[in-house]
Amino acid sequence: MTRARRLTGLALATTALLACGAAAPALAQPNGPKYGTPATAFHRTATYPVYLNVPAGVDPADETVAEISAISPDGDTVIYTDAEGERIGFLDVTDPSNPVGAGTLALDEITDAPVASPTSVAAYGELVLVVVDTTDYDADTLASKPRSGELVAVDATTHEVVATFDLAGQPDSIAVSPDGAYAAIAMENQRNEDFPADGGVGDDGDLPQAPAGFVQVITFGGTPTDPGTWSIDPVSLTDGAALPILEAAGIDTPEDPEPEYVAINDANQLAVSLQENNALVTIDLATRAVTAAFDLGAPVVPNVDTDDDGAIELTDTIEVPREPDAIAWIGDEYVATANEGDWKGGSRGWSIFDAATGEVVWDAGDTFEHLAIAHGLYNDGRADNKGAEPEGLAVAEFDGVPTAFVASERSNFVAVYDVSDPTAPVFQQLLFATNGPEGILPVPSRDLLVVSSEVDDSEEGVRAAVNLYQVQQGEPSQPSIVSADVDGLPIGWSALGALSADPFDKGIVYAASDNALTPATVFTVDVSDKKGQAVIVDSLVVTDGGEEASFDVEGLQALEDGGFWLAVEGSSGPANALVRIDASGEVVDEVTLPDEVAAHVRNWGFEGVTITAEGTGDEALWVAIQRPLWVDPSVGAGSLELYEGNVARIGRYDLADESWAFFGIELEETGVDGDWIGLSEITAIDDDTLAIIERDKLNGPDAALKTVITVEVPDELPGEGELTILEKSLAIDVLPALQELDGWTQEKLEGFTIGIDRQVYAVTDNDGVDDATGETVFLRLGDAKKVIPAFR
Fold first, then answer.
1. pTM, whole model, 2 decimals?
2. Any keyword Nucleotidyltransferase (predicted)?
């Protein structure tokens, strides 16, 4: 069946209900399908993988992360925490388009603690304030051990220790007041997820688990640069008048508060998020008094997907505690919270509260998660566990406009909002980030935004990085493709691995998702705005016998009758198939490989399909087989032996006589250990000329080969068992176009097509945000007559 869609722009109005039962205010949006065309916007200028900054002797493949970051007073040096490497790093961002690693400082050089991990960092004058967790996290005994930590003041230039303060507990975040008079540290004393609550009751991870958390307040004194004049004072949340305030607020387990994040406003009022307690506490720094506490409630959020099943179906409603992580003041009256969730909740959005009353003045409802979906970033593997999971949050003023930045930990983006009116935020733009954006650092003095990411896996090519964005004129180059919404809900999409032009409409191309998304779906993409975003405006679900089909669609050919041929990659050679669907999406025909080829394909099979001489007696389908054939594909991948050298095949299937013929293409080599080259798409330029994607398996700074090649097919076809090797020519080197985006260079250049107006398009497969950044790049490569020599 077909799911009719219409282009309605990308306004994502929320219908969520607040915990109090009142309807949530609608999320105001700029007009138009591209979120407006601002005179200025944040443009990504660089993505710096922090493994490039590790000390000599450290294997660059070792895990190294960037979590929380700070900026030097002159705005030229980013300081980031690297808990995995047990160090802090320095990055020179004098030129935001060319950040330079400025070395690291190992914690064993600044503390004598046997165990040390940085949890947060702040810049204060000529000093770097490093918050260090020195707790021994022995899973067998942690429940009975005291938590411990230190604040280490380090000279920013010499890296010498100026002072060390015992924090008397396990710390999390630090904040310095805008006037430089105070700093505050959230002393979480976090629970142990492997132990039940005190007394052995309840499930593992339940509260309470002593000791209770608290806050440390540093007063910098008359000589701020001299730590000898500083004082450090604990503020208990369970002694004296504090506990009754928390109890009166009705928060979860008030006897065991666990502070997560701190923020200070211009009036030196401290806001503290208690994530596991689902609460917010305010403290007057001058008097050290707890002034208020609020339970943050459990909003009702409809139109979300809570099933980890590969399908994006916005049919569920949740009602769970917000459990905020990062928080930020908006002026002196409002506090914003990123509702990441923990053991009991996570409302998949963010909220704004009146700091005096605790009243919810605005809630994102379902709109934050819908941003992930509209941009192809929805991580379905997290659907049953907090979804897009907002974690980082910061607020700063840029060009006179109070601006909020909210980061999605699991969908790898930062959403930017105008919060001039805290009761009606206006979404401005979405910024792609590398995996697990954690630290959100606005630098208004430099018109910069610094985003540090904490996920690092060298085997998967996912590396932690510092992402830089700068306010510049014009519209950013990314995002390049989004989906429209219908009746308030975005079209769910991901993992676009195939493209095909419409046979009649120059403003339409089609894309298909691979098996990262189920059911198999063909998307209609509006490309009529030549200088703007491509917009997914329709979706067609593939059915087989009336039932939704789950195919790994890797190739797509639109037909003049409204149907499509699909290249379906199988988990084994015989499972590869060319599947024809009619205009309603129903399977009407299927073609498989001959046995003598299928037996040697394994799971690196069909990657593209195209057609020549459509509607004539010479009509033929052409397919690209991703990798060379194997002698025995039943053995493990590490033991595979090539059947015919480093040669991949393209196949020609004659629709009239149902016969196959095969040609060979000799593949390039990068010389990188573990890399392999394959084919990813095939497109007919004319009846004798084919364009084919040839690419490596590398990404990020290692990416080396992302090309479109062309081959001329001889009139005489190879006989059965024969293989004619075709001479190939470079048509388009796509790598520079991917690198010019200043992000993480994507691995999977997989879709390519040429419109009837000769416009050339390509797209990257985001792997369904699984071991990938999730960014989809939709490329407009120009007029085929100008960019493809064979087209001339």
1. 0.94
2. no
